[in-house]
Amino acid sequence: MCFLKLSGIHFSFGEEIIFDDFSFELHKSENLVLKGDSGSGKSTLIKLILGFLQPDRGEISLKGNPMDTKAFRELRKKTAWLPQDLNMGENSVRELITIPFSFKHNAVSKPSESTILETFEELGLQEEVLDKQFTDLSTGQRQRVGITLCALLNRPLMLLDEPTSALDRSSKDKAAELLLGDPDRTVFSVSHDPFWIERCDRIIEL
User: How far apart are CA 44 and CA 200, in angstroms?
Assistant: First the structure.
């Protein structure tokens, strides 16, 4: 079943053409990874899917229905997004994990502390990380906190930009098992990491 479809996408920054007649389909419950050289438009594509950028030409459709402003807003509510440059401010990790669940559409999914710690354990994070400032964490810890939040949000669609770039082999194993093992979840990721790429169902190369 086609979950998300991009048809004939053309997008440019000024005179620099990023996509020219680019198309692809993302199927429900699929783990799809996009690979390509730096500057090839991988992160831009995620922003197009989320509606943060608009194509010059072409169409983005969800379950066969063309996307408009309202549809993009609804899609974001069903999406967990992990950006490559994870900047979550200067609050404690506990506060940062709590903030998304203060919004009405997330309140029903608010996790207990035991659930948060179980997810931490799955990713090799210690309980003490909860009360540390996010800015005091290592790059790998920050990435695993971001992965924790994506998992706790439990959205049907995940958009992940270089999800394992700062992780060691053991942490990569744990992250892949947590993020790619749910048959009810559709995962679209961008990655240079052969370890992650090999564990996805399908590869698109730019």
Answer: 21
How far apart are alpha carbons 46 and 158 in whole angstroms?
A: 10
| Digit-coded pLDDT (tens) for 137-168 | 999 999 999 999 999 999 999 999 999 999 99
Helices (H), 9-87: 42-50, 69-77
User: What are the sequence ranges of the domains in the chain?
Assistant: 2-205
**Residue-wise pLDDT tens digits, 75-124:** 998 999 998 877 777 789 999 999 888 888 888 888 999 999 999 999 99
- Alpha carbon 29 to chain centroid distance? 14
The CATH number corresponding to 2-205 among 3.40.50.300, 3.20.20.140, 3.40.190.150, 3.40.50.2300 equals 3.40.50.300
Residues 187-198 have pLDDT tens digits of: 999 999 999 999
Residue with tokens 């943060």: 52
User: Where do the H-state alpha helices sit in the chain?
Assistant: 42-50, 69-77, 93-98, 104-107, 113-122, 139-153, 169-180, 194-198
Do 167 and 123 meet the contact criterion of CB atoms below 8 Å apart?
no
- The CA distance from 168 to 151, in Å, is 19
